[in-house]
Amino acid sequence: MADTPEAPAKSEEELLKEWQNMAANDASGGGDDEMAKAMASANGEPQKILDQGEIDALLGIDAGTGSDNNRGVRALLDQSVVNYEKLPMLEVIYDKFERVLSTSLRQYTADNVDVTIMNMTSVRFGDYLNQIPLPAGIVVVNAIGLEDYVLLVYESNLIYAVVDVMLGGRKSRQVSVAGRQFTAIERKILDTLTDIVLKDLGDAFGPVAPIQFKAERMEVNPRFTVISQEANVAILVTVKVNLEGREGRMQFCLPYATLEPIREQLLQQFMGEKFGQDNIWENHLSQELYSTTVKLDAVLDQMQFRLNDVLEWRVGDTFILNARPNSPIRMECGGVLKLVGNMGKALDFKAVRVSHNVTDLNNLKQA
After folding, report:
1. What is the rounded CA–CA span in Å between residue 204 and residue 349?
2. N- to C-terminal Cα distance for the chain?
3. How many angstroms separate the most distant Cα atoms in the chain?
4. Average pLDDT for residues 124-130, to the nearest whole number?
5. Which of 54, 105, 116, 245 is most buried, by the most CB atoms less than 10 A from its CB?
6. What is the distance between the alpha carbons of residues 33 and 365, in angstroms, rounded to a whole number?
7. Contact (CB, 8 A) for 117 and 90
8. 170 and 73 within one domain
9. How far is 198 from 191, CA to CA, in rounded Å?
C-alpha cells in the first residue's frame, strides 16, 4: 500500500492569520453558530441544550430543598446503600421505641422532647464507619441474648444539646463544637443517656425476644469500634431528637449477623404471626388425623434371593421361612417398624399380641 504524501508544514505567519480569524469569529458569535450547525447536521436534527435545572436534576443536586434523597448520577455513585432483606417487625420495634424513648427523655430532661425515626436502611459496615461525622460518641453495646454487638452513635450536636439542657443552658446560643473532645462531665451525662436509651430499646424488643442491651465502652475513634467485618451488611437506623429547638441525631448500627438468631421473628408482618398456627385449623387437623385409617403389615420373616433364582420361580413353589410359632412378629406401617408382638389366635382369626411399642423400641436402640 502506497504512503500518502504528507501535507506541507505551515509557516508561522499562516498559523498566526488562522488564529486571528478564529478569535474574530468567536468574538462575533460566529464560532458558536458554526459549532451548533455542525452538531445539528451530524445527527440530522437539532440538539437540545440542557439548562442549569436539568443539569442539577441529572446529577442529583437539589439546590435549596434540603432533601436527603439522592437521585440521578449521585444515587448511582452512592453504593454504600445495599438492597437487602427487609425485616418488617424491626420497623414495628423501632416505632414502639420512638414512643417509649420520647416519654423517658421528657422525664429525664423535665422538658419537651420530640423523637422521630428518620429512616432505616442497609449499608456496608465498613462504609458506615468511614462516614461517621467526627467528633461523635460511639458506644459499643453488648446485645445479651443475641451474643453479639451493636453500635450506638451520637452526633456531637445531640451530645452538646443534652448537656446544655441538663446544665440549664436552654437559652444560650449553640457554640461551635468542631474539633473539641468530650469532657468528663459530658461523658457522665452521656452514660446516663445511654442507659435510658438502651433500656427502652430492650423493652421495645421484649415482645419479640428477651434481649438486654448493655453499654460496654464509649469510643471517639471509629477504628476502635469494629464489631463486624467491613464487607458485612448492617441495618442503620437514624433517630432524630429535638430538644428545645435543637436537633441532633443518634444512629443504631445492627449487623445482620447479630440479628440472625431472631431473624424468623423479625420477618413477621405483625406481632405473634406464626405460619400454620391457626388454632381452629389445628383442632380440625388433629381430629381428622385421629380418625384416619392406617394399614399395618405383619411381617413374619424377611429373606434375600438372587435375581436369577427369582426369575426361575413358578406357581406352586414353596419357601421355607425361618419363623417359628414363638418368633417375634414385626408390625410395620409404610415400611417403618412400629410394634413387635407374638403370633396367636383370637376366635377364628390370626392375631398378634403386642409385646413392644414404639417407645420400647427406641429405648432398645439407645441402649
Report:
1. 66
2. 94
3. 133
4. 87
5. 105
6. 96
7. no
8. no
9. 11
> Cα separation of 302 and 14, whole Å?
111
302 domain residue, yes or no: yes
Residue located via cell numbers 437521585: 71
CA distance 162 to 183: 14
Residue 69's domain spans which residues? 37-78
47: closest CA among 55, 58, 57, 39?
A: 39
Helices (H), 110-137: 125-130
One domain, residues 67 and 98: no
Cα(246)–Cα(174) distance, integer angstroms: 9
Spatial strand order of the sheet with 113-124 comes to 113-124, 233-243, 246-255, 148-155, 136-144, 212-219
Q: Could you tell me if residue 158 is inside a domain?
A: yes
> Rounded mean pLDDT of 35-43?
50
pTM given for the model: 0.53
Tell me the pLDDT tens digit for each residue of 41-85: 445 555 567 677 777 666 655 554 444 455 555 555 555 455 566
